[in-house]
What does this fold into?
Amino acid sequence: MNVMDRIKEIERRIQTMNRLLLNARRTYTLGLHHAQHEPPAGEDQIAHASQHLAAGSDVIKLDDLAAPDDTTDLDALITRHGLCPKLPNDVLKYLDGLGAWSVPAGGGGGSDPWSTKKLSSDFSTTSGTPVDVTGLNFTPAANKIYAIEGTLLLRTSNASYGVRIGSVQPSGLEDGVIAYGVATAAGSTSLFNVGAIASEWVHLLTALADAVNSWPAWLKAVLVVGATPAGDFQIRVRSETNGIEVFVKKGSYLRYREI
It folds into this structure.
C-alpha cells in the first residue's frame, strides 16, 4: 500500500470515528437505559443504542419516556429548536417569539382602561344649592383628553320635588362637552346637552316618577385638558327645593379614561 492509500485509509477511519462519536452524543440521553439494560451479548453498545434512534428497529418515542424534570433545559430558544415552556395557567397569555408567556398589547391580562369611582353607600342632601357627591370625582392630568361616563341612581323623599344633578369642571380646559339624561315624573327622558365649557353644568330637573324607587340619570362627557389644569371633575347634586331630602344611591358610579 503506497503512502496515498494509507492517508485515504486513515481519513476513512477518522470519518468512521466521527460518525460513531456523533451517534454517541445523540444517544447521551439514553445513558440510564444503557446502564440498566445491557445490550445482547456480542452487540456493540453504540450499535445497540442506534436501534432506539429515528429509523431504528426499536425506536423510543418521546411520549413513551418518563416525565421530564421541572427545568428549562429543553425549552425552545431563538438559537435552537426545543419544547414548549411550561404553561403559565393564564388564559390571557400567549407564547411570544422570544419564548416568553406574554399579554398582548391592549389585551386582557385583565387591564381595564377605565378608572371607576362608585358609591358604596347612599349620599343624601337637603341643600337647595349644589354640593359635591363624595367620591364621584377625579383629577384630570395636563394635556390629556378624557372620555367620561356614569350612571346615577336617584331618589327623592317627596315625588313632587326632584334631584338636580350637575358637575363642576377643572379650570384650564381647552374644550369639552357633556350630556345628561334623567328620568322625569312622566317616566320619559329629560335630556340636557352642553356643548361649551362652563365652570359648572347643571341639569334642571323638576321631579322623579315616585319617592319609592331609584330612577336613572346618566352622563357622557369629553374633556380636552390644557397644559395647566387645576381642580377636579366633580359630580354635584342638590334638592329642587331646600329642605327636601334627595339621594344618590349606593351603586352609582362615574368612570373615565384617556383617549
Summary: Residues 137 and 234 are 4 Å apart (CA to CA). The chain has two domains: 3-87+94-102, 115-258.
